[in-house]
Amino acid sequence: MQLAAMNELGKYSEVESQATAELGSSAALMSREVLIAYRKQLAKAFAMQDNHSSAEGEYNTILSLNAADREASELLIEELIALAKYDAASDALHKLMLGKEENANYTLTLGRISLLKSNGGEAVFQLEKALSQDPSLRRAYGFLADAYALSTNNLQAIKYYVLAIQYTDEQLAKTGQGNRNKREAAELPEERLRFLRAATKIYAELQNHKEALAMNLRLIKLKDSDAAAHYGAGQASMQLGRVYNSVEHFRRAVVLDPTNATYDSALKSAEKQRNDLMASSTPLSIADVLVNEIFPSIYKNYSDVHQLPAGEIVLTNNTESAISPTSLTVYCSELMSTQHRFSAKPSMQKQILSCAFRHCSMSLF
User: Fold this and answer.
1) Model pTM?
2) At 65, which helix (H) or strand (E)?
3) Which residue among 146, 151, 226, 276 has the highest number of C-beta atoms inside a 10 angstrom radius?
4) What is the pLDDT of residues 304-318, one digit of tens each?
């Protein structure tokens, strides 16, 4: 059918014009099946243009022609949800479910409706039930995360936000391969940003500053113009004692949102702490040591010790100027000692070096 192909190509306004014209001139001559097919394409064109009232009208017309059309009923429910007619959507869904075997997608939709009605407890119940009915229904993760957040269960909320972010990453990868329509391709990046922002907020509330920083840095990588993400990264950096990094992030937040008094105040406070550190600290200090768990049992999997998973040693330059070539000696008691040399650049506030072993002692000179 030509209209279906045009809808797939995103030519929604053209479908609307052509279908409306042909229905106006030839509807009386069409069989019921052809008439329903035309109206379904017209309803889809309306829906994709966010004309949900007209789409609702078309689906009701289709159901008046064939009350047993399950697809039309399902699509009508989506239009009712889009129009915030939640009770009507719930009634239509329960009618559709009456006397039928449990359907995970229908249960998911009940959970979505409860969530939209701000009933967190019922939303959690329905969404968990949907996942138990079909564990592969991973698009439920984001809704379930929102439901747990609404219920102030932050630990469960963060669990599902992380899963939702992973799932959205996978969907975006498929979009890049051309396996999604244009509307989904446009919506997925914003959905991922929303999940990241929600996760960042919860990590901050849980005082898990490392994860809050990681989430904010990912937000910044995806959207450097996000002033709130730079501010959040600055706050997390400050809580982790990374004063120099916090200054950089607060400064960027102020540049992006110069009228925000909170950002400006945070920058001034961070700059004061940085200046105090510069006056009292050694030129170079170890800010953090980030390592992965490594156990002796995995050594045999590496033909060369240099292939072992590396950790990171974060060094802070506590001055405004360059530091002349300096050495960091890392003593790894299991196997050997190694010495790394580097030169800090004037513009950099940290240097990251690799260390292949967990149990290390470090000295600066």
Assistant:
1) 0.76
2) helix 52-65
3) 146
4) 544 455 556 666 666
